[in-house]
Amino acid sequence: MEHRSYMRRRALASVFILTILFTSNSFANYSSENIEIAEESMIVVVDTIAHDSSSFTQGLEYYNGTLFESSGLYGSSSLREVNPVNGEVIRTLPINESLFAEGITVREKSIIMLTWKEELALVIDIEDFRIVGNYTFQGEGWGICFNGENFVTSNGSSVLSYRDEETFEVNYSVNVTWNGESVQNLNELECVDDKIYANVWMQDTIIGINSTTGIVEMFASAKILSENHDGPVNEVLNGIAMDNHRDGFWITGKNWSEMFLINFERMSENHTDKKEQLVSIKISDDWSIMTVLLVTTISLILSGLIIRRKYAPQTPNFKDHSRHE
Q1: How confident is the model at residue 289, as a pLDDT?
Q2: CA angle at residue 274 from 271 to 277, to 5 degrees?
């Protein structure tokens, strides 16, 4: 009986210690230094040019003074070279009607174009504007950019795949998170230094992702631009290309009639307040968990004491026993 009581006390003590350790660890993890909050930026329009509204924009890339754009849909996919001064289409490469063109990027003197469900990436010579090869891959193709070492691709999930520039095989992957939550529907991509800028399908938002950690470090609403192109549900914001010559980003949307050169201007003066607010929320959640654990621990201790008292062996009264003798 004494052995059981000893084991019960050890178990209750273990629960209590684990409760304290869990709480201490949680508070340490939720210090403001460990919370990553995306900074909000404002879109500033620098220039506006015409955009062919028949283009179902899937990818956009600026290279050597000109813009390249991929247009999707089965039966009408194409690659276009576009004049960044006036939006005029300079030349067009029709894509086989069995393919749905997706995002594009440039490596050396080739354009790499993803296809949606065909598990094929086309290699197109920039000078001749003709298909000269291809890569194969598994899954869907959405967005692509080249960071100088790897192709970075999206497939509509929250995962970015870093692919070998020679074989297109996946070297590693990074999950993209925004304030701790995975970001689904990553679409068109643009690699700039240590960031990856991305469109999020069906959202009027552009996000800036840390290319190493996958954490969203900035975001900007493009609603001021998209609300002027309020067409069918699929005519959404898509296409982002860094113009190194003018130090800005070209953005547009599917079947939009305009293309915009923009800059991102930081506007998160209350960034610290948001971080502290998120820390407060997480600590509040932990207090709730801690309260439940403490109540459970106390209940177990009290139950143990009651059971011990109820079933403890009675000490014989030797005086009464001798009297009856």
Answers
A1: 53
A2: 155
Q: Domain residue spans in the chain? A: 2-30+274-324, 39-268
39-268 domain in CATH 1.10.3720.10?
Answer: no
- The pLDDT > 90 percentage for the chain reads 66
> Which residues fall within 8 angstroms of residue 4, CB to CB, at 6 or more apart?
none
- Rounded-to-integer distance, Cα 41 and Cα 267, Å: 5
Whether 253 shows a pLDDT value over 90: the answer reads yes
pLDDT at 32 (0 to 100): 43
- CA atoms of 240 and 62, how far apart (whole Å): 9
What is the DSSP secondary structure assignment for residue 33, as one 8-state letter? G
Give the torsion through C-alpha atoms of 256, 197, 102, 109, to 10 deg: 110
Which among 242, 219, 240, 236 is positioned nearest to 42, based on CA atoms?
219
Question: Residue by residue, what is the 3-state secondary structure of 152-179?
Answer: EEECCCCEEEEEECCCCCEEEEEECEEC
DSSP state of 294: H
pLDDT at 281: 42
Edge-first strand listing for the sheet containing 39-50: 186-192, 195-200, 205-210, 216-221, 39-50, 258-266, 248-253, 237-243
* Residue 14, CA distances (Å) to 70, 167, 297, 300, 304 in order: 62, 54, 10, 12, 14
pTM of this structure: 0.74
pLDDT at 307: 53
What's the rounded Cα separation, in Å, for the pair 176 and 174?
A: 6
Neighbours of 185 (CB within 10 A): 15
From edge to edge, which strands make up the β-sheet containing 150-154?
144-146, 150-154, 159-164, 170-175
